[in-house]
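## retry 2 of 3
previous attempt timed out at serialization; input unchanged, resubmitting
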Amino acid sequence: MRRLFTYIIRYNFIFFFLILEVLSFILIIQNNYQRASFFTASNSLTGSVLNVTSNISEYFSLRKTNVELARENQDLRRQLSSSFSTTDTNAYVQKDSLFTYVYAKVIKNSVNKQKNYLMINKGRDHGIDRDMGVITSTGVVGTVVEVSDHYARIMSVLNIQNKINARIKSNRHLGNIEWDGRDYRNGLLTDIPSHVSLSEGDTIITSGNSFIFPEGLIIGTVLEYSGQSSEKFNTALVRFSVDYNSLHHVFIITNLMKNEIEQLETEE
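## retry succeeded, writing output
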């Protein structure tokens, strides 16, 4: 006890200073204006901390959010009118679902070769098979060419051996989309009859004349066209709607009527 009193007496000026600080703080808080300023500053600091924490949490949840959005898009695509076929009869109109869509992540991709391919993290175990179309929300990506149990290899639109049946949206005339191995942003619409009218900005879509892609999926828009009447068929430069250098997620199209169509073709 004596040591305690000796310690207090020795450092009395420190204890006196602390007591004055406490009293001053109490007086400040009791003053309405100062108290309001104190709690405003406190709330501002707390809000800033919570905002930073929320932003960090939101950043780390982006991957999960993107996956959920992709799956929602998959479900919405399955409900599109283009996924249904209408059959007219004397008695009724029947809608049969033609296409389903499977979401997948791109795990490998290239755009700087003559023959470019992609690899996705879905395969035979997920219902993926050869000759299935692959798309994104912005357009056509390619066609499945090889499948394992858990992965699939896609021949990209950016492959000089790939050819996609296309249609000019404005006048319904047919052509083919090919890639010349140059700029990954542009392709060629070939086999355009010389009498067909085509202008810059015209939209090019899938024709629907195969069991791989449904009709109406966007491929790109016309950049340049100078039709020659002396030629039987002409070619136009097309800007692709898909940025193939930034592919992350895709949808694989399953045509539920594929076997029936192939059987008819075999019989022919």
